[in-house]
Amino acid sequence: MAATNTKINRRQFLKASASAVISLAVVGSAAYYFKDKSNIREKGYLRPPGSRAEKDFLFACIKCGLCVQICPVHAIKLADWNDGLAYGTPFIDPNVQACDYSCDAIQCAETCPTAAIDFQIFKHAGNEAVAPLFKKYPDGQFPKDINPFEVQILAMKRADKIGEAEVPNPTQCLAYHGQGYKGKLGHGNKGILRPPGTKERIKIQETEVNREICDLCVTYCPLGDEAIVLDKLEDGKFLPKVKDGCVGCGVCQMVCPTDPVAIVVKPVDKEPQFA
Ligand code: SF4
Ligand code: SF4
Ligand code: SF4
User: Fold this and answer.
1) Which ligand lies nearest the alpha carbon of 248?
2) How far apart are CA 6 and CA 134, in angstroms?
């Protein structure tokens, strides 16, 4: 009886060993397969505003998904297995849905439990911008043209650069050919946006525009002419010119009507602090 048990146990042992070897082989192959897979940055996706440098971010993000849930325009998605080590971490694809700061208070950063998205930079920038106002108007009687809340929000939007827009191939741009645009915003994508100077969000696929010369990337940019202008070239053609104030929110790419899009936002490199 004891001998039979030993035999069965040996068989079980061999079976378990074989399973372990197969599992290791599978995990090893998967690791080998994924190690060379491009991560989300190499795909041109952006990290949410306030995100730490890529190495620090991968270390700090616990993949809880809270930033995904809180974003009012559903700009943030979680990376899948094809994104290698970035699996489960949040990203923004500006070709589909940009970060247009519709939340005002940068809620993804505010809600992040590990500061992988760091709210402090926004808080400091906002406070620094409004502090002189409160000194100047200690009784809170601000002139009509000054809204401290708006001053604070604008400073927060400027506080972090997640990407930079560029027009890699001018011949794809309608303005470069002196062409206008009449039709729906965007290039068939379903984005949501709060146009500059307004309080309501619009659905880009339901928004009709009509421009003699296309300048949609310029007029929908939440940071205006400090980030992008329509430049008149020497030969009389036009081209969007991206300026230092661009923070890489992706709105210009989201609303551009050409396919493929003429203006794209590339993620910028940040200096790692910890890795
Ligand atoms: S809230 Fe922070 S920790 Fe959670 S998924 Fe987003 S970035 Fe990662
Ligand atoms: S929205 Fe696109 S096509 Fe129109 S001006 Fe900007 S880059 Fe050119
Ligand atoms: S140019 Fe404006 S809309 Fe485009 S990424 Fe920069 S800040 Fe955003």
Assistant:
1) 3
2) 82
